[in-house]
Amino acid sequence: MIEVKGLRKSFTLGKRRKTRSVEAVRGVDLSVAEGEIFGFLGPNGAGKTTTARILCTLLEPDDGEAVIAGADLRKDPGAVRTRVGYVPQGGTTTDEITAREELVLQARMYGIGKAEAVERTEKALAAFELTEFADRQCKTYSGGQRRRVDIAMGIIHEPKVLFLDEPTTGLDPQSRAHLWDEVRRLRDQGMTVFLTTHYLEEADALCDRIAIIDHGEIVALGTPSELKHGVAGDVVTVGLNGSGPRAAELFDGRDYVRKLELGDDGLRLYVDDGSTAMPQIMRVLDGGDIHFDTVEVHRPSLDDVFLTKTGRSLRDK
Ligand SMILES: Nc1ncnc2c1ncn2[C@@H]1O[C@H](COP(=O)(O)OP(=O)(O)OP(=O)(O)O)[C@@H](O)[C@H]1O
């Protein structure tokens, strides 16, 4: 549904002799399947918005190719525009206008006839649970309600692909969860969703596949579990009192242990899959008569993936 090859974009900053160039997007390749929720995860300034804006025809790339919903970005930007919806960071609603007016206006801007625009508006208001306050000015809405109006506006012309730029920034956890449900509902109806986020939990919980972007380049791509599993495996930590060296000896050379470390907190065993390694570990501990205080499995997070790929934590951003 989205095929991107070698996408590049630089911006020039400053004036006259003091200009410098920022390479916002540096050769991005990606492929998004129909009906997928695809996450573009990265820290501030990584190039997420620039990529999304290019793919929605709002910015011209310096180089590269893209085909979106069957339309070529460079040769037929008009066709791309009718097949995508874009919800920018911060939304598009106007304070003094009501949700109903916004939606009808948006539909009309896409050339949809009046009766049809009104009908689609009613459907969208119901689907996004906005009917109750559809005739109140947008400035009276909560953050979550206003975001739902933004998304309803983004899909009123029934696009094939919806681009959501940081859709849950500034929302409380409950509104965030509600919005995730809305996005899943759109996916279940067959829409392809491309969303940018810097929230690890959002990418993990919501996205079918993720591209991690840093300094304009994709550093990792896959399903959340592929990414997490690929870099680190699981870590089983056995809290021991005194018998650490003897336990380490017992586990040394076992085929399910990739690596082991003896630290202050006990023995750390790096394994492919904690749930299958655990029974074997317990048997070894039992058989060796090793007394332990705790056994814990740590599954790697997307932050571990980011850390492995970039040497930095996304949580510090
Ligand atoms: N219009 C512009 N003029 C100059 N530089 C720009 C412009 N737009 C983006 N940039 C720069 O390009 C880089 C990528 O920005 P972009 O907005 O794409 O990042 P982002 O990953 O979306 O970040 P955020 O999460 O903060 O929105 C940044 O260094 C940014 O300062």
Automatic annotation (TrEMBL):
Belongs to the ABC transporter superfamily. Drug exporter-1 (DrugE1) (TC 3.A.1.105) family. Its main location: membrane. GO terms for biological process: daunorubicin transport; doxorubicin transport; response to antibiotic. Pfam families: ABC_tran, DrrA1-3_C. GO terms for molecular function: ATP binding; ATP hydrolysis activity. InterPro entries: AAA+_ATPase (IPR003593), ABC_transporter-like_ATP-bd (IPR003439), ABC_transporter-like_CS (IPR017871), ABC_transporter_ATP-binding (IPR050763), DrrA (IPR005894), DrrA1/2-like_C (IPR025302), P-loop_NTPase (IPR027417). Keywords: Antibiotic resistance, ATP-binding, Cell membrane, Membrane, Nucleotide-binding, Translocase, Transport. It is a peripheral membrane protein. One of its GO terms (cellular component) is plasma membrane. It comes from Actinokineospora auranticolor. This is ABC-2 type transport system ATP-binding protein. PANTHER family: ABC TRANSPORTER ATP-BINDING PROTEIN, ABC TRANSPORTER ATP-BINDING PROTEIN NATA. Residues 2-240 form the ABC transporter domain. It is found in: Cell membrane.
